[in-house]
């Protein structure tokens, strides 16, 4: 094997210019592949981190996953219902204190109850519709990152102001309102109540900044006429990997629909999976293109070294050894390109990670989310070596089949 490697290295060294060009082709393929993979996975991880921080790991909702079974369905095999009218009942999770106590016995994490409903906010003769969410601030802060988005005041101020209201900054700007102003909220049932703005938040999501508001849970229950009723329980787990198991157990225990963050974003997870397939397909395509350069140089060497092949065969070298020589030539170029490309990829990724830019006036400075992973280098180098081996194997098989007699006679 050492002799074969020395012969392959000699062939490659004799065509230095073509070797350098082919090596650079592989290096650029590996380098850009590593940088692109780091950027795409970094952006995915950054988005998922932001998403996971913004939503509860498990949310228990005031609805059933399947419709209630009717008594007639239990007695007869085939039934049809017409004009079925539901009972007049307030929708929501009853006895929230009992429900939370039963969950705290086994859930490893923080929980917060919420009551949300539609309301109309009026100030200075202007009206806007929004989703009003009643919360208990000390619990809400354990499961939500809304405090990080506060621009004026604090969510904690709702604890000391029974009629306090935390409003999106864009909604306040539309109304011309500010912290300290008193506004009127009217529910769908026509109940009106005055609230005092104690804080403004800005999430960067227009729908939230214009259409959401927070108030004390008791005040919202009075406004929506739902005393001692909530419509959701948000859970933030210590181990996010337990989300599906916790959701399943909570649903069995309480009877209400429990949704994990993975179930809530199932379509998004599928989109990320497809995006990763596309990414690695593009990476593979880049390295296949680089393999054409290796195929070209090895084919040229086979043509130029035809007499050398005849001499080696005459000396007793079997076809397998001849084939290995030219495969090794492709691998030598592939190894050199993989090493150079890995260095190039690391340097390019490090540079991209330092690029700073301002996205909006509300985000001071941000940078490209680059994720450094050894797996990216392993995959890129493996694909480079694989394409190099294939590129060298095709002309190597041709070289191994050459007849030394035909070569010496000049038939080739």
What does this structure look like?
This protein has 412 residues and is of the alpha+beta class. It is built from 16 helices and 14 strands. The protein has two domains: 193 residues, no CATH class; 139 residues, no CATH class. Helix content is 56%, strand content 18%. A six-stranded mixed β-barrel has the order 3-4-9-6-8-7, surrounded by four helices. A two-stranded antiparallel ribbon has the order 2-10. It has a two-stranded antiparallel sheet with strand order 13-14. α12 packs across α14. The radius of gyration is 34 Å and the shape is elongated. About 1% of the residues have low confidence.
The proportion of residues forming helix, as a percent range, comes to 55-70%
Average the pLDDT over all residues and give the rounded result. Answer: 80
Describe the biggest sheet? 6 strands, mixed, barrel
Taken together, the total number of domains comes to: 2
The radius of gyration computed from the alpha-carbon positions, rounded to a whole number of angstroms, is 34 Å
Low-confidence stretches: 361-365
Could you give the distance between the termini? 28 Å
Beta content comes to 15-25%
**How many runs of DSSP E, i.e. beta strands?**
14
Number of helices: 16
Secondary structural class: alpha+beta
Strand order of the largest sheet: 3-4-9-6-8-7
Write the element-wise H/E pattern from the N-terminal end onward.
HHEHEHEEHEHEHEEHEHEEHEHHHHEEHH
What is the general shape?
elongated
């Amino acid at each position: 094997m050492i002799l074969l490697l020395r012969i392959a290295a000699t062939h490659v060294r004799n065509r230095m210019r073509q070797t350098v060009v082919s090596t650079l082709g592989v290096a650029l393929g590996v380098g850009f592949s590593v940088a692109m993979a780091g950027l795409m996975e970094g952006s995915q991880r950054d988005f998922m981190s932001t998403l996971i921080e913004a939503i509860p790991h498990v949310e228990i909702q005031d609805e059933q996953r399947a419709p209630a079974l009717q008594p007639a369905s239990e007695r007869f095999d085939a039934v049809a219902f017409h004009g079925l009218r539901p009972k007049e009942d307030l929708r929501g999770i009853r006895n929230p204190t009992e429900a939370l106590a039963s969950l705290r016995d086994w859930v490893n994490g923080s929980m917060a109850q919420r009551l949300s409903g539609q309301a109309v906010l009026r100030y200075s003769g202007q009206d806007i519709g929004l989703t009003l969410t009643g919360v208990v601030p000390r619990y809400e802060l354990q499961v939500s990152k809304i405090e990080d988005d506060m621009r004026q005041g604090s969510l904690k101020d709702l604890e000391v102001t029974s009629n306090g209201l935390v409003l999106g900054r864009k909604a306040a700007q539309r109304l011309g309102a500010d912290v300290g102003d008193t506004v009127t909220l009217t529910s769908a049932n026509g109940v009106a109540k005055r609230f005092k703005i104690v804080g403004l938040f800005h999430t960067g999501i227009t729908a939230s900044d214009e259409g959401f508001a927070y108030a004390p849970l008791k005040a919202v229950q009075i406004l929506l006429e739902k005393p001692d009723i909530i419509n959701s329980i948000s859970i933030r787990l210590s181990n996010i990997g337990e989300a599906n198991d916790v959701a399943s157990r909570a649903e069995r225990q309480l009877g209400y629909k429990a949704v994990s963050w993975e179930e809530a974003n199932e379509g998004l997870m599928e989109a990320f999976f497809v995006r990763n397939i596309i990414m690695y397909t593009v990476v593979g395509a880049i390295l296949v293109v680089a393999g054409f350069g290796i195929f070209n140089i090895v084919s040229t060497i086979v043509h130029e070294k035809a007499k050398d092949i005849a001499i080696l065969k005459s000396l007793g070298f079997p076809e397998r050894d001849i084939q290995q020589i030219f495969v090794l030539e492709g691998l030598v170029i592939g190894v050199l390109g993989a090493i150079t490309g890995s260095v190039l990829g690391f340097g390019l990724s490090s540079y991209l990670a330092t690029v700073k830019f301002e996205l909006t006036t509300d985000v001071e400075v941000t940078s490209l989310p680059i994720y450094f992973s050894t797996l990216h280098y392993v995959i890129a180098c493996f694909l480079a070596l694989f394409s190099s081996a294939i590129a060298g194997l095709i002309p190597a098989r041709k070289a191994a089949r050459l007849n030394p007699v035909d070569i010496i006679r000049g038939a080739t």
